[in-house]
Specification:
Blueprint: E1 2-6, E2 27-28, E3 31-32, H1 33-43, E4 48-53, H2 58-65, H3 68-71, E5 74-78, H4 85-90, H5 93-99, E6 106-110, E7 114-117, H6 121-131, E8 136-142, E9 152-157, E10 160-166, E11 177-186, H7 189-193, H8 206-214, E12 219-223, E13 229-232, H9 236-247
Parallel strand pairs: 1-4, 1-6, 4-5, 8-12
Antiparallel strand pairs: 2-3, 6-11, 7-13, 8-11, 9-10
C-alpha cells in the first residue's frame, strides 16, 4: 500500500521559526514530527511513501535520504504552488496510478501537520477497510461546537458518511464529527480531483472531491476511540499540546 504525506505547507503560523526549520521537522521527543507520521504509515503496512514538499524544504529530503531505512521507501513529490489539500494530493495521481496493483486501489493520506496519540489510527483504518471489502475510510473525532469551522465535518447516516461540509459555521454543521488528519481512499478520488472546482478559500478542497465520491461509492468512518486524539502541530499552541501528549504521556 502507498501512503501520501502532504508536507509542502508554508508554516506561516510558526514564523519566523519556519524560515529556518520546516514545521514538520519540529521535534516530538527524539524524532521530528514527520518521522512520527512516516513511522505510523509503515506500521500500517505501507511500503511506499510519497512525501509532498516544495524546493524550499530540501532539509526534509536530506534528513530522510541519509537513513537507508527510509531512503528505500520514500519518494518525493514537489508542489511549488499552494492551491489546497486537494491540489497537493492530485500531484501524486500519476505515481499512485502507476504503482497501485489492480487488487489494491486504496491508499493512505496522513496530513503532515497532524499527529495522532492514543491509538494506531492508520493501522486501524486499514483493518476496517479490509473488513469492509476495501472501502474508503475517514478518521474522525468529536470536536466542540466552536471548532467545527476549522475542519471538514461529516454527516453520518447508518454508520456511513452521507455528506461532508468543509469548514461550516456552527449553524451549517451537520454534526460534531470532524475529519481528523487521516484518510484511506480509493484511487478513483483522482477522477474527482481532476475536475474539482475551487471551494473554501479559492482552493481545491479534498473534502469537496470526497463529497462527490460519496454519492457514487460508500465511504465509512473510524472515530478514534478514547484516548485517541488528533494534534495539530501547525501552530504553537497545538505543538505544545502535542508535546504534552507524546513526551509527558
Amino acid at each position: 500500500m502507498t501512503a501520501i504525506i502532504p508536507a509542502a505547507g508554508l508554516g506561516t503560523r510558526f514564523l519566523p521559526l519556519t524560515r529556518a526549520v520546516p514545521k514538520e521537522m519540529l521535534p516530538i521527543g527524539s524524532k521530528p514530527a514527520l518521522q512520527v507520521i512516516v513511522d505510523e504509515s509503515l506500521e500500517a503496512g505501507c511500503d511506499d511513501v510519497l512525501v509532498i514538499i516544495s524546493h524550499a524544504k530540501e532539509l526534509v529530503r536530506k534528513y530522510f535520504s541519509e537513513d537507508p531505512q527510509y531512503a528505500k521507501r520514500i519518494r518525493w513529490v514537489y508542489q511549488e504552488e499552494q492551491h489546497g489539500l486537494g491540489h497537493a494530493v492530485l500531484q501524486c495521481a500519476s505515481a499512485i496510478e502507476q504503482s497501485e496493483q489492480s487488487n489494491n486501489r486504496t491508499f493512505l493520506i496522513l496530513l503532515g501537520d497532524a499527529v495522532i496519540s492514543g491509538c494506531a489510527a492508520s493501522k486501524e483504518m486499514v483493518a476496517l477497510s479490509r473488513a469492509n471489502g476495501g472501502a474508503s475510510v475517514i478518521g474522525c473525532e468529536h470536536v466542540p461546537p466552536e471548532k467545527v469551522s476549522r475542519y471538514g465535518i461529516l454527516k453520518v447516516e447508518g454508520g456511513r458518511i452521507a455528506d461532508l461540509v468543509e469548514k461550516p459555521s456552527i449553524e451549517e454543521a451537520p454534526s460534531d464529527l470532524a475529519i481528523a488528519g487521516r484518510y484511506l481512499l480509493d484511487a478513483k478520488i483522482f477522477d474527482f480531483l481532476k475536475t474539482q472546482t475551487p471551494g473554501k478559500g479559492g482552493e481545491i478542497q479534498l473534502t469537496d472531491a470526497i463529497r462527490r465520491m460519496v454519492k457514487e461509492a460508500g465511504v465509512t468512518l473510524l472515530p478514534y476511540a478514547y484516548p485517541g486524539k488528533r494534534h495539530d502541530i501547525g501552530n504553537p499552541q497545538g505543538y505544545y499540546e502535542t508535546l504534552k501528549a507524546f513526551v509527558e504521556g
